[in-house]
Amino acid sequence: MNKTYDVVVVGGGVIGTSCAYHLVKKGFSVALVEKDDIAKGTSSHCDGVALIVDKMPGIDAALGYASIKRFLELKEELRYDFELHQRGSLYVCETDEEMEIASKYANDLHKEGYRVSVLTPEQLQEKEPFLAKDLKGGIFSEECLGINPFKLCFAFVNEVKGKGLDVYAQTEVTNIKLNTDNAVEAVETTKGTIITKRVVNCCGCWAPEIGKMVGLNIPIEPRKGVILVSGASFPICKQKIQEFGYMVSKFGMECKRPPELEKYGVSFTIEPSAGNNVLVGSSRNFAGYGTNAEIEIINMIAKRACRFFPILKEMNCIRSYAGVRPFMEEHLPLITDVEEVPGYYIAAGHEGDGISMSPVTGQLISEIIVGEETCRDIEPFRFNRYKK
Amino acid sequence: MKQCEMLVIGGGPAGLSAAIEAAEAGVQVVIIDANEKAGGQLFKQIHKFFGSSMHRAGTRGIDIGEELLQKCKDLNVEIWLNSLVIGVYDNNVVAVDVKKSLTEHELVKVQTKKIVIATGASENAVKFPGWTLPGVMGAGAAQTMANFHRVLPGKKVLMIGSGNVGLIVSYQLMQAGAEIVGIVEAQPNINGYAVHASKLTREGIPIYTGYTIIEAKGKERVNQAVIGKVNPDWSIVEGSEITLDVDTITIGAGLKPLIGMAYMGGCKLINDRFLGGWAPCHNYNMETTTKNIYVAGDASGVEEANTAIEEGKLCGVSIAESLGYLDSTKAEELKKAIWNRLAGLREGAHGTERTGAKQKQLEEYTKAMEG
Questions:
Q1: Structural domain of A227
Q2: CATH code at position A300
Q3: Using CB atoms within 10 A as the burial measure, which of A86, A342, B110, B146 is most buried?
Q4: Is residue A129 part of a domain?
Q5: Which of A276, A297, A327 is the last residue of a domain?
Q6: Residues of B with Cβ-Cβ distance to A320 under 8 angstroms
Q7: Considering CB atoms only, which of A294, A299, A320 is closest to B90?
């Protein structure tokens, strides 16, 4: 393989496939290089939602909202069905303290113009009759989406494969060659060298490795999350439901939670799937790159889920799986060029929001590479934030 | 947490034999079995074994089953029934879903030094229009119903597949009072042993070689089967369709190893059609690429009860040796004898291919451990 492409995208997850898709749409020839296979890592070991109400008010929520709008366009644009459903989503609160924080959070989002409403316990029951009866209330957003994450990756790839995109699966990047100006010159892989002036590092948890090849320190760490799958049944929930403790766990908010849950960042989430199985989560802990689902965590998640959704006690768990999410201290991904290395771009570090933010991430990367005005302010996502 | 030295997943011929061999040397063993009675497929094998004379030819599977269970009892092997292993986790922790009653389950965790995966195999499905209708089932399932639960699955049966399972189960269903409408085999020749096939043809049961199932018809349950002759490209020869009145279609399309636990344990797997598909690699001691996880019987590649018993014994001896209950000279002697018997059992029909596949498994283990 001695080929030349306008851009080499490294990483075949949802971010890489979205970048590849959006770049081809801009007229670039793109090689997508993946060490394993499409959607083989984090993008197939996650859940599948695009939400506003798991984002912090401000840029985080804005990016989430822009992605939801872009998803609705993609549903028409991509011929491969990725099972998009606009179902809405629900946060539920266990304590008065949580309800207070949640109401304030909802108000902040509301002020920014998002359609988010606060629900009483009675309204909660109306929306989801199988929720525990003793909850203190919740917040609801009608705009949130459900998506099949691996089908989404294939939808991006299938649309442009052979029409500007070549996929090199089972191909590992071994080195990135720079010229005397420190600019990208070629990408060396286990299957040969690709000549290119531009590389996009979309390797999520593994982005630091591809960063090191050009002397960059990308501060991403793998954070593990475990998810359980139930047997198929009649539809027991209509939308994504999460306990507000998920936000507490995700953003390290100030709020009292049981310490045994905090150890593994366990909080209740549930979402319906196309086949009427439910996915039940979740956990967050730092345990390296391993993706074993530990029985302790599975146990804790199941117990937590039964507390919020008692009907789950009557159902079987048929599978469990874990994935590693690319954690960044700032809870903001990198969607950026790199000043020191012309031609090197990064789109990584979305933690639990990769699926949700993939459309806008791909769009932004394509705009950055073209050099045109970006659809949003990219300053917060730039790599040079570490210089300040 | 409950502790043990050796935990065996699956109490069929392989698992029971592993347990007996290890317990005889002094190892403390727990067997976990999902069914209400251990013994695996042995208790539905009401026919006499055949083949190798050194290997119980003339003995019925059920008698071997009783014998193995009695030995386990004598050796104080703990057997948990109605207990399903749901996962193998880090540090040799095995999680078991213990069924207490129809609605009550308890999750029990066991910490063990050694794990033997002896989970057996599952039946391959054949998909055709109507395959999900009540009355369409695996040949093994029909055999369990008839021979173990003493329930006749149907009165007019069409068997798909003429391998030994298809032939034996057809004969047993016939003995139990069902009419075997026919046996369908897509290959040009009968797949199983002639001795079984001739028992059926003597009774006037038609074996349709070169035919395949096209469709199962029926509303509430299957009441007709349409079969047809196949061309070399698997299309149907026009006008060759035959419609048969049936109430049951049984599918004997081979077995594949149950590898869930090996996959979860991170054992390296290889794919070989003579193993029945994906199966874990293992070494001379039946240990997989994951330390302390061993495999035996159909779970290590589909064969039959005798090889399962021998592979189980290998696990038992190796584990007893590794835990210090057997000195290495004695263990080596036992292992050598078992491997010799296995070589004997792997002669005969498809013997070369099976021996080749088993050899590849050993080689892939070495490659994986060196790489």
A1: 89-142+221-327
A2: 3.30.9.10
A3: B146
A4: yes
A5: A327
A6: 87
A7: A294
Are residues B142 and B154 located together in one domain of the fold?
yes
Shortest distance, CA B265 to any CA of chain A (angstroms): 9
Q: Determine the structural domain holding residue B295 and report its residue range.
A: 2-122+255-370
ipTM over 0.95: no
One-letter amino acid of A157: V
Nearest CA in chain B to A297: B89
Number of domains observed in the structure of chain B: 2
CB contact under 8 A, B89 and A292: yes
Specify the 3-state DSSP secondary structure of A49: strand
- State pTM to two decimals: 0.83
The answer to whether residues A131 and A254 belong to one domain is: yes
Contacts of residue B71, defined as CB under 8 A and 6 or more positions apart, other chains included, come to B16, B20
Virtual torsion, Cα B304, B310, B311, B317, nearest 10 deg:
160
Query: What's the token pair of residue A387?
Result: 């210089």
pLDDT in tens, A180-220: 999 999 999 999 999 999 999 999 999 999 999 999 999 99
Q: What is the CATH number of the domain that holds A351?
A: 3.50.50.60
* A316 interface with B at CB cutoff 8 Å: no
- Chain A contact set for B93 (CB, 8 A): 295
Q: Which pLDDT tens digit goes with each residue over A54-92?
A: 788 888 888 888 889 999 999 999 999 999 988 889 999
Shared domain for B90 and B15, answered yes or no, is yes
Cα A128 to Cα A137, A140, A268, B65, B196: the distances in Å are 12, 11, 15, 52, 59
Residue window 274-293, chain A: list those with CB within 8 Å of chain B.
292
